[in-house]
């Protein structure tokens, strides 16, 4: 019973009047108070001393054990958070066990009740009730362990283990109502940080909405109205029956009809009240007069939490929430609203320097493409002596310079940021916060991108490998690793691959002299040899071992990315369905709106199959409060908009992944797999024309390798407008569109938006420079050359000859096109023409045979 | 990196073999010597030789005979059709432009016609064979005949990729002689000791160079395989913002006073059994108001609700209002809507409707239950009472616009008509009519 007693009263500051009749209780209460004071003044050693005394009086009390663990951990400088987690989990488990057994006893005694009261209940309701009972078991247990669970989540958060923190926090959040205000607020704020860090927009929106409602600080944009609202509703909660009517009744809500009904009913109610038996009638009557259920105040979710420790309220929390909102809007790329909300944040801060606000502002400008302004804002930061802040500052500058195309400058800033991080690690005493402030892995990821842009695939891969410790669930990381592999192969940095010069030139061995001179054209473009020289590497993720870049590794990475993408697709689909539901839907169909995640978590009911709960949720969704409505709507819209962006990005990534996969399979001489990848690519809805082109070219080559020339021709001939005329498979605009697929403003898609928006819509020259791909005319040339090759193998030499001429005019430097042209000449018996083509081509290297034989042996 | 067809050992072997052909060694001896080396890769050697043979100038006549003999011998243990070079041999035998002794030699090798299948002719040296060759002694069959005899049972073309199967020889003659000169003229052959002049060259040097550099792959049409573009970096760079610090929390509940909570729990337990005294009721309401979380821990569960409603409706209302945000509220409503109709339950519902927004479905179901309760009750007096109660309740709901009459119009109208003898029902009916 002990644990239940202590658990049922976790509300703070209620121990002022300890029961005088119980001497033990008062002693322990005094000790507990002392310990709490020591804890608050951060005197952890003294705190532990007091707690140890307390422990002898309350043997095995989990709350005492918990506080001892916390105090000792802080006293010892947070040295071993993993061990701390273990300790906390053990305490939590023991408390849960104690509770479970208690619940069992209680449920046994409840059986009788159930029978009597359940006479009218249908079988389904009975089932529901019993189900709810099991739910309530968890519920009370969660409550009792809410602080300890919160602390577990705090440690996971600082260790960047967001998924683990989330798994602890979500059950708490679902049953947040019974948890005392201070803890509940901490839970919500931590949860918000966790979901924002894991880029989960819809969950962030839920928590934001909840915080604004429950803690009454939401309507910041309405000035100080929030406070008034808060007080009024406090009143309301306090004495429900006697609502101070006149001040709160909104006039609009008493239309004539109701008034007239009221009037006509007056005689009736008089006669009724004559009935001496039913005092209820009078209450009915009172209720009739007090038509004061102003929707503003009494819709259930508007009941603000009232007894929160006031110290954490006020401007601080207001500012904090406002900044969270900005972060949320930046996450969902709702730039315009983010700008507005950042302004509000500045107003709230009233001139106080907030480095968070400043960095957010800079991020906003960065997101808008105003790179210069972003730099300026960062430079304005006065707080650069703080190591943690300066590491962020340097990292962010690195991001900006990267976007400006100045990769080497960005490299300097990234490495500065990294060295900031390592000096942060050396700072003593160690704080728990230090762990979460160490963002070296994030910065390392940025480094990886920068090295990739600089054409250094091996060191880039090393960075991505390190960053995989936290980003291993991001498909993009795996795509980047695959790109590292492809670049390394391309550059000849991989064991068994040729140096780059060998790929872009024709090598001709000159053998013999004089009349005996022979030219031997080396077929260096053919890719055989690459495959068997590269073994399957078992590269352990996150291991110290350096990844051996290879084509099989690229394939592995691409598969990983596709798998992750498919997983996130299916989960996205789940959130997406309801996010499309509009307000009308909410009103009309109960069933459909029950899926709405927004509403669902507002009430905290997850999936309890009760029609009543749906109804309740539904009535919540009514837009009776315009102010909160717009706010909520804004957040809702942002989530939907972001989901749209994510879907689009995933589509793009899928195209890239499948194209890369088809390419890698071709390189690995697996035409069947290449063909299936290329076909999947072509089947993707909304596929960019660039990738359609790649899909056709890869599919055609794979079919060619599978000896299906007819089908191969089909893939290429869709670009034929005449017998020997190829149409451009994509345009320059397609390239630009690919680079700026994501729209910037969600509010007004066609609105002016100022110079920033337009600037962001046109790819910067730096952006185009980074997009290293065939120009449209080169793509044409590629098609000509490949068609020529295809027809040559089919014996249609004349046609092949014509096509190859076209190809060479568009791609004069292509070794492949030249080789095909020479081939056709030789087959046609025009060896002199072949010779002259060979000698004209600028990409031929003639090697004397002596040199060559030395080299080869 | 074009793969070299022959390793160094094989290259030496071939060069020596070809050289030895000019010596007075019998062809058989040369062959035996050549094939004693087990490390030779027959196909590679033969393929190299076939490439050299294609160039009419490259090998001397004796060298050619030895080379043909090797092509044949390498696969002689199998049926002729299994020899991958059989069609090459057949074509060479039919080549009108070739020397007749060469064609005859190949026919001998193939054992064509009535020529003795013995390998007698191999016992002489290549030069002897040429010298002794009598053109009149040999008739040359038609190509078709040879093809029929040797290729008929040939395997279908082995699988090869389309591009590769159409490969052409990748060696081009590019004689470097002064313009106007005949490259085939022997004047350009380098004479030992003589001063080299423009356009001269050494055949042996060219030959060993070729042998060293021949590759298995011929020249084939080339496919352009564009490298996919790198994925654009858009929002991918990680921008860093300061984290909020989340400190470890002290559990304030440690050793806290629980006496008042316990008192409320006791009172609630009592309230399930019967009405509380006014001061007790007041105590419960005050404590619940003081601590908004206490309601979650006062010992009430959905199943206990009906008892609380019947015994202490006011406490029930207060508790339900406080639980409105609880995840369990739906279950409380379910229980409430399904419990027996009574004055108290109606009072609770009525008060709830004025205090909080109830789910529409809940109110609707509740009204339906009210009406059916009125219809099913047997005791006339009780029925009258209940009907009047329901009527007032409904009027209150309508006036306060808790319900939309249209949802229940038919049902309520029928109810009014059934009980039209009761004054309140008539009143409700009139109210309905005004709203129509």
Automatic annotation (TrEMBL), chain A:
TPR repeats lie at residues 781-814. InterPro entries: CNOT10, TPR-like_helical_dom_sf, TPR_rpt. It comes from the Eukaryota. PROSITE patterns: TPR (PS50005). Residues 114-128 have a biased composition (Polar residues). Residues 1-10 have a biased composition (Low complexity). Keywords: TPR repeat. Residues 1-22, 99-128, 584-607 are annotated as: Disordered. PANTHER family: CCR4-NOT TRANSCRIPTION COMPLEX SUBUNIT 10. Belongs to the CNOT10 family. This is CCR4-NOT transcription complex subunit 10 isoform X2. It comes from Gossypium hirsutum. The gene is LOC121225227.
TrEMBL record, chain B:
Pfam families: CNOT11. The keyword Acyltransferase does not apply. InterPro entries: CNOT11. Keywords: Cytoplasm, Nucleus, RNA-mediated gene silencing, Transcription, Transcription regulation. It is found in: Cytoplasm; Nucleus. One of its GO terms (cellular component) is nucleus. GO terms for biological process: regulatory ncRNA-mediated gene silencing. It comes from the Eukaryota. Belongs to the CNOT11 family. This is CCR4-NOT transcription complex subunit 11. The gene is LOC107897174.
């Amino acid at each position: 019973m002990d644990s239940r007693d202590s658990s049922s009263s976790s509300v703070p500051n209620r121990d002022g009047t300890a029961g005088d009749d119980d001497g033990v209780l008062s002693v322990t209460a005094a000790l507990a108070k002392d310990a709490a004071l020591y804890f608050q003044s951060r005197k952890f050693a003294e705190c532990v001393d007091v707690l140890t005394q307390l422990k002898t009086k309350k043997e095995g009390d989990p709350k005492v054990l918990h506080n001892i663990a916390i105090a000792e951990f802080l006293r010892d400088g947070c040295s071993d958070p993993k061990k701390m987690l273990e300790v906390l989990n053990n305490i939590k488990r023991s408390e849960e066990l104690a509770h479970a057994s208690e619940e069992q006893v209680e449920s046994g005694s409840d059986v009788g009740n159930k029978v009597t009261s359940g006479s009218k209940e249908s079988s389904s309701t009975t089932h529901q009730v019993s189900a709810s009972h099991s739910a309530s078991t968890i519920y009370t247990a969660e409550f009792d362990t809410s602080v300890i669970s919160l602390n577990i989540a705090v440690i996971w958060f600082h260790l960047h283990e967001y998924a683990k923190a989330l798994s602890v926090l979500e059950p708490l959040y679902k049953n947040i109502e019974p948890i005392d205000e201070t803890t509940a607020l901490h839970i919500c704020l931590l949860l918000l940080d966790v979901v924002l860090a894991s880029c989960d927009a819809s969950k962030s929106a839920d928590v934001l909405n909840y915080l604004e409602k429950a803690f009454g600080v939401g309507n910041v944009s309405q000035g100080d109205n929030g406070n008034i609202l808060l007080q009024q509703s406090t009143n309301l909660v306090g004495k429900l029956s006697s609502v101070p009517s006149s001040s709160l009744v909104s006039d609009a809500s008493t239309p004539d009809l109701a008034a007239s009904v009221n009037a006509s009913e007056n005689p009736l109610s008089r006669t009724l009240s004559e009935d001496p038996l039913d005092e209820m009638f009078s209450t009915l009557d009172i209720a009739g007069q007090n038509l004061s259920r102003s929707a503003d105040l009494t819709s259930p979710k508007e009941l603000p939490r009232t007894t929160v420790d006031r110290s954490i309220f006020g401007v601080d929390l207001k500012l904090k929430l406002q900044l969270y909102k900005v972060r949320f809007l930046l996450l969902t790329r709702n730039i315009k609203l983010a700008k507005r909300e950042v302004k509000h944040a500045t107003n709230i801060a009233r001139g106080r320097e907030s480095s968070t606000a400043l960095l957010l502002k800079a991020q906003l400008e960065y997101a808008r493409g105003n790179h210069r302004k972003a730099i300026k804002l960062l430079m304005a930061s006065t707080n650069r002596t703080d190591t943690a802040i300066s590491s962020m500052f340097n990292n962010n500058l690195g991001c900006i310079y990267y976007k400006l195309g100045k990769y080497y400058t960005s490299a300097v800033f990234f490495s500065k940021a990294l060295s900031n991080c390592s000096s942060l690690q050396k700072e003593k005493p160690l704080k728990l916060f230090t762990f979460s402030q160490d963002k070296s892995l994030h910065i390392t990821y940025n480094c990886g991108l920068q090295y990739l842009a600089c054409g250094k695939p091996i060191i880039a891969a090393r960075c991505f490998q390190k960053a995989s410790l936290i980003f291993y669930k991001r498909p993009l990381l795996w795509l980047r690793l695959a790109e590292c592999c492809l670049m390394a192969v391309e550059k000849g940095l991989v064991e068994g691959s040729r140096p780059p010069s060998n790929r872009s030139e024709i090598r001709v061995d000159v053998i013999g002299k004089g009349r005996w001179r022979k030219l031997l054209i080396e077929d260096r473009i053919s890719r055989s040899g690459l495959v068997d020289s590269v073994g399957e590497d078992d590269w352990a993720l996150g291991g110290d071992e350096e990844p051996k870049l290879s084509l099989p590794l690229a394939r592995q990475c691409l598969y990983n990315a596709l798998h992750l993408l498919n997983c996130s697709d299916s989960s996205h689909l789940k959130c997406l369905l309801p996010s499309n539901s509009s307000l009308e839907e909410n009103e009309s169909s109960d069933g459909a709106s029950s899926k709405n995640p927004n509403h669902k978590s507002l009430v905290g009911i997850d999936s309890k199959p009760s029609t009543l709960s749906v109804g309740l949720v539904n009535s919540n969704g009514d837009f009776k409060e315009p102010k909160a409505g717009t706010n909520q709507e804004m957040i809702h819209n942002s989530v939907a908009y972001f989901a749209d962006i994510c879907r689009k990005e995933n589509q793009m990534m899928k195209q890239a992944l499948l194209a890369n996969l088809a390419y890698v399979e071709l390189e690995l001489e697996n035409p069947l797999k290449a063909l299936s990848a290329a076909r999947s690519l072509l089947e993707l809805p909304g596929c960019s024309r660039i990738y359609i082109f790649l899909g056709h070219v890869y599919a055609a080559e794979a079919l060619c390798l599978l000896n299906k020339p007819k089908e191969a021709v089909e893939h290429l001939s869709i670009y034929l407008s005449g017998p020997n005329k190829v149409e451009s498979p994509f345009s320059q605009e397609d390239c630009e569109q690919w680079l700026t697929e994501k729209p910037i403003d969600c509010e007004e898609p066609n609105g002016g938006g100022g110079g920033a928006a337009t600037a962001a819509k046109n790819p910067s020259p730096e952006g185009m420079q980074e997009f290293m791909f065939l120009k449209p005319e080169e793509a044409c040339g590629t098609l000509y050359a490949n068609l020529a090759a295809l027809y040559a193998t089919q014996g249609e030499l004349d046609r092949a000859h014509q096509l190859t001429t076209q190809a060479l005019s568009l791609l004069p430097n292509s070794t492949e096109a030249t080789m095909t042209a020479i081939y056709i000449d030789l087959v046609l018996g025009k060896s002199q023409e072949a010779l002259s083509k060979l000698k004209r081509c600028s990409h031929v290297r003639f090697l004397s045979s002596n040199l060559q034989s030395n080299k080869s042996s | 990196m074009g793969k070299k067809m022959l390793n160094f050992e094989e290259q030496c072997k071939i060069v020596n073999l070809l050289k030895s052909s000019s010596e007075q060694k019998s062809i058989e001896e040369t062959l035996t010597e050549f094939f004693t080396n087990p490390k030779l890769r027959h196909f590679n050697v033969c393929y190299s030789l076939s490439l050299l043979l294609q160039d009419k100038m490259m090998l001397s006549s004796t060298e050619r005979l030895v080379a043909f003999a090797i092509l044949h011998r390498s696969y002689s243990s199998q049926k002729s059709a299994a020899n991958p070079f059989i069609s090459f041999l057949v074509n060479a035998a039919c080549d009108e432009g070739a020397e007749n002794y060469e064609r005859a030699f190949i026919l001998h090798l193939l054992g064509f016609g009535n020529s003795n299948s013995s390998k007698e002719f191999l016992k002489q040296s290549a030069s002897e064979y040429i010298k002794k060759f009598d053109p009149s002694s040999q008739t040359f069959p038609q190509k078709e005949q040879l093809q029929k005899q040797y290729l008929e049972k040939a395997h279908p073309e082995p699988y090869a990729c389309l591009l590769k199967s159409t490969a052409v020889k990748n060696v081009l003659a590019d004689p470097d002689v002064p313009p106007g000169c005949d490259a085939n003229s022997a004047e350009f052959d380098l004479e030992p000791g003589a001063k080299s002049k423009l356009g001269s060259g050494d055949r042996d040097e060219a030959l060993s160079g070729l042998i060293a550099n021949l590759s298995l792959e011929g020249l084939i049409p080339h496919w352009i395989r564009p490298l996919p573009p790198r994925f654009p970096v858009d929002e991918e760079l990680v921008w860093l913002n300061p984290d909020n610090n989340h400190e470890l929390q002290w559990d304030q509940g440690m050793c806290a006073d629980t006496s008042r909570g316990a008192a409320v729990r006791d009172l609630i337990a009592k309230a399930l059994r019967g009405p509380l005294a006014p001061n007790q009721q007041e105590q419960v309401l005050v404590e619940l108001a003081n601590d908004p979380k206490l309601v979650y821990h006062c010992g009430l569960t959905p199943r206990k609700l009906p008892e609380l409603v019947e015994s202490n409706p006011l406490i029930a209302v207060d508790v339900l209002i406080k639980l409105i945000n609880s995840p369990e509220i739906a279950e409380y409503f379910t229980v409430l809507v399904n419990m027996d109709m009574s004055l108290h339950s109606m009072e609770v519902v009525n008060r709830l409707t004025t205090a909080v927004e109830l789910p529409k479905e809940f109110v609707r179901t509740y009204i339906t239950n009210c009406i059916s309760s009125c219809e099913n009750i047997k005791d006339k007096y009780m029925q009258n009472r209940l009907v009047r109660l329901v009527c007032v309740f409904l009027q209150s709901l309508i006036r306060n616009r808790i319900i939309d009459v249209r949802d229940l119009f038919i049902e309520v109208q029928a109810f009014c008509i059934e009980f039209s003898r009761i004054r309140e029902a008539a009143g409700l009916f009139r109210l309905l009519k005004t709203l129509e």
